[in-house]
């Protein structure tokens, strides 16, 4: 496991990690309870605290931006979601893990599908393909979802996507069970 840390962080950095992380977690709890307005307010505060203490280009800031964008997607506030996802992706490409960037690209793919921009959805998802850094659209659902997916259950675009991108990964997951 590769762990990087900061020895003797500044007070601002430590506060941003501690308080920003707590606000982020509280926002998730509110979202899961259905208090979307409260969750949005806390995600925005978490982003503000993290940007002040860690800087706008920090991977922890991007984590909260991505989470807020997922909330916006749920609320169908697509323009706000797109802005947050683009900000998060820019950071995650540079400072985050390949998986984090893949998740944000997948979220952008879902957003573009919601806007009926299917070509853009495919392109953003395939951006990480060469490096093997792609996330299933159902990354937040247990891998068992792959057991119930069938080509005939999806529109033609999704069936093609299943064959090209998901099938081999879902089959690997099935083999491990």
From TrEMBL:
Keyword Transmembrane helix in record: no
Key words, A-Z: TPR repeat
A matching Pfam family: TPR_12
Top-level division of the source organism's lineage: Eukaryota
Transmembrane found in the keyword field: no
TPR repeats: 62-95
Alphabetical list of PROSITE patterns matching this protein: TPR (PS50005)
Protein's name according to its UniProt entry: Uncharacterized protein
Biological source species: Hericium alpestre
Lineage: Eukaryota, Fungi, Dikarya, Basidiomycota, Agaricomycotina
